[in-house]
């Protein structure tokens, strides 16, 4: 059920209606990865850039393809296909890097994700989002936020904070360096 709150000065109050955890309609950026359609919430996306020069970093997990220079900032690039236990993304003319901003312990982290191709931004009503499957998915279930129904087909909605968990990736880097 929604909650009502008022904000502002006594002479100019604003009524705010909260509909719970999820707004009625959310926007998602859809993209292709190994022949499947995935989506992430548009609020996490900062920008989309062409795949360009990556600098490889030694002793990183396989899913970290390298880093890029984004206007002077070093940004790690994750190959989502490898992160999901599939093969490396083959670079083509449609390959893109989606730059995401995620929150980690109160700090904003910028991380790029390598995808086969970016499709479009879709608005998906909350009523058209189902709970993630508990089994049978080709990726870890904690990576899936839900299943969006779009024109009779399902789109896998990713939990970008779990997929790009800085803490989990740091643990993997530390474990690899101890080998």
Automatic annotation (TrEMBL):
Its source organism is Halothiobacillus diazotrophicus
CheW-like domain span: 25-169
Please give a single GO biological process term from the UniProt record: signal transduction
Enumerate the CDD domains for this protein: CheW (cd00732)
Q: Any idea what this protein is called?
A: Chemotaxis protein CheW
User: Can you quote a single GO CC term?
Assistant: cytosol
Can you tell me which residues the record assigns to a coiled coil? Answer: none
What InterPro entries does UniProt report for this protein, alphabetically?
Answer: CheW, CheW-like_dom_sf, CheW-lke_dom
The UniProt entry, under SMART domains, shows: CheW
């Amino acid at each position: 059920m929604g909650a009502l709150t008022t904000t502002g000065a006594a002479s100019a109050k604003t009524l705010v209606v909260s509909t719970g955890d999820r707004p009625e309609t959310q926007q998602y950026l859809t993209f292709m990865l190994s022949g499947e359609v995935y989506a992430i919430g548009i609020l996490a996306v900062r920008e989309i850039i062409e795949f360009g020069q990556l600098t490889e970093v030694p002793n990183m997990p396989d899913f970290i393809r390298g880093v890029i220079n984004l206007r002077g900032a070093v940004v790690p690039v994750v190959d989502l296909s490898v992160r999901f236990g599939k093969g490396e993304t083959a670079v083509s003319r449609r390959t893109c890097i989606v730059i995401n901003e995620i929150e980690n312990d109160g700090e904003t982290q910028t991380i790029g994700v390598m995808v086969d191709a970016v499709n479009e931004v879709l608005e998906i009503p909350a009523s058209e989002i189902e709970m993630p499957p508990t089994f049978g998915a080709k990726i870890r279930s904690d990576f899936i936020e839900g299943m969006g129904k779009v024109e009779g087909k399902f789109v896998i909605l990713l939990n970008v904070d779990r997929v790009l968990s800085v803490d989990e990736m740091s643990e993997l880097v530390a474990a690899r360096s101890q080998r």
